[in-house]
Amino acid sequence: MSDVLAVVEHRRGSLRDVSFELVTAGADLVGDTGGDLHLAVIGGDVDAFAEELSLAGVDAIHTVAEGDEFNHDVSVQAVAALSEELDPTYVLMGNTVNGLDYAPAVAERLDLPLVTDAIGLQNDGGLVVTREMYASKVESTVEVDADRAAVTVRPGEWDAAEEPGEPAVEAFSFDLNESLVRSRVTGFEEVGSGDVDIADADVLVSVGRGIEEEENIELVRELADALGATLSSSRPIVDNGWLPKDRQVGQSGKVVTPKFYIAIGISGAVQHVAGMKGAENIVAINTDPDAPIFDIADYGIVGDLFEVVPELIEQFE
Amino acid sequence: MKVLVTVKEVAEVEEDFELDGLRVADQYLDYDLNEWDEYAVEEAVQIAEESDDDVEVVAVTIGPERSEETIRMALAKGVDRAVRVWDDALDGVDLLDVGAKTRLLSAVVEDEDPDLVLTGVQANDDSFGATGVSLASAIDFEWAAVVNALDLDADGGVANVRRELEGGVEELTEVDLPAVLTIQTGINEPRYASLRGIRQAQSKEIKPLALSDLGLDAAAVESDLVLTDVYEPETESAATYFEGDAGEQAAELATVLREKGVGAQ
């Protein structure tokens, strides 16, 4: 029997998608071992969240009415207290920016082995986690050599649970040690929008690390102009200061759904794909035939962008 | 004030590679300083440069002797000295889990007694992204993960940070010191090492520490995680590929784009 405690996430009044994916992953993990799936909802409008999370497969929802927004000190204490009470076999959390801000501390505090960024979970006698290494170039399986574990799951890998259910909803109270709340969220800011909103574009020509030098960006800009498209980029281009932050597509940048997304010299790291996989048509130009961008591309050119892009510009002049 | 920066030499895998058991075969690996750590090092050096007080920047790594060459690059960029933890007990360990790394680094923190610890958000080899926050919990420091702006108020005992959340949103947070901050790429512009810096780095100390030097034994690096398989993921590409030379590829793509109304004159 394996009981699972899954900790959901919310931000600024809404549950994050990963919360519903955690329900699916948690229900899979409980499987037919006869265990229970518990959810923890910490902070915000916990009653409304609990109602939204009343889904099939969930046995109990524990609400902790403490604060409006995520605070890692509160989350660590709440999850630790809940774990002591429920004694779960596995604690599941999201592999999100906030997940990585509290899950490792939960594991450390409860002395649980931690596996992060899971893309697959198997529970037959012991826990086996599938995860990626070396920038998605290889996959690995990791066996947990312990009775219990903490795991963070990658967003978007499990389907969101939708089917309604009738879990028990219980308010959970514990003694919050205020002296250990040593960080305070003072606000949120949207990353500044310039004159162009890449989320509105029908056609995006997007440039990545393969462009090598700042001055080569001009080549891709020329192509965008020839196609009447908007120029966007992957993270390294913005990190290098070659394009402003509002041009960044991906998990931490903008999520875009254009008619055409033309990825030039972009390998297709999972964080980038999260921001553009909803595009209607995806074109990838890359020298590496094994680049993950080709897995989601509709059209592919395996080739040197410095040869292909000038030819493409010529086609449209 | 003392700033401790954790750094890691990581292997990058070449485009074409082969596996050798549970590892990528050595000849396909290029070793370099972890990308995130470049930014953490730069942030630490900038803190030292901008402070009116004396700030010592110490790098700590867990790695074999080979990694000294990489660590020296951090010294060339302004880190004052380095500590390298290694032990025979670590030789041949396929996967050092977060708990083991935390135990090793905690012992170093106890030795060094820093006021601030900076780490990279993650290492781009095994990508656990967890050591910094786990370490903070173990040494009873406050923390913040995925920091992309830092304004340190050492006298006020607080770090004002921005955390880069998903979807182009940043969280503004006050973090009490002492703290561990995990540093995101893009927070600064890492400098290139100067020739003078490279020369000076030759005489800077990289102190090797074995488990016994840290008051630990082999039990400290026993991992609860066992790497059982490593394989190349199956590619599921359903893409239509355009073949031929660059001109032919471009022409075929242009035809498709025009058919779908892109770039139509």
From TrEMBL, chain A:
Molecular function terms, GO-annotated: electron transfer activity; flavin adenine dinucleotide binding
Annotated TM spans: none
UniProtKB keywords: FAD, Flavoprotein
Gene Ontology BP annotations: fatty acid beta-oxidation using acyl-CoA dehydrogenase
UniProt domain Electron transfer flavoprotein alpha/beta-subunit N-terminal: residue ranges: 4-185
Gene3D superfamilies for this protein: HUPs (3.40.50.620), TPP-binding domain (3.40.50.1220)
Superkingdom assignment: Archaea
SUPFAM superfamilies: Adenine nucleotide alpha hydrolases-like, DHS-like NAD/FAD-binding domain
Matching SMART domains: ETF
PANTHER family referenced in this protein's UniProt entry, alphabetically: ELECTRON TRANSFER FLAVOPROTEIN ALPHA, ELECTRON TRANSFER FLAVOPROTEIN SUBUNIT ALPHA, MITOCHONDRIAL
Record family assignment: Belongs to the ETF alpha-subunit/FixB family.
Protein name per Swiss-Prot or TrEMBL: Electron transfer flavoprotein subunit alpha/FixB family protein
Organism: Haloferax marisrubri
TrEMBL record, chain B:
Listed Pfam families: ETF
Keywords assigned by UniProt, alphabetized: Electron transport, Transport
Occurrences of domain Electron transfer flavoprotein alpha/beta-subunit N-terminal (ranges): 21-218
Alphabetized InterPro entries for the sequence: ETF_a/b_N, ETF_b, ETF_beta_N, Rossmann-like_a/b/a_fold
Taxonomic superkingdom: Archaea
GO molecular function, one term: electron transfer activity
Family: Belongs to the ETF beta-subunit/FixA family.
Entry-linked PANTHER family: ELECTRON TRANSFER FLAVOPROTEIN BETA-SUBUNIT (PTHR21294), ELECTRON TRANSFER FLAVOPROTEIN SUBUNIT BETA (PTHR21294:SF8)
Protein known as: Electron transfer flavoprotein subunit beta
Organism: Haloferax marisrubri
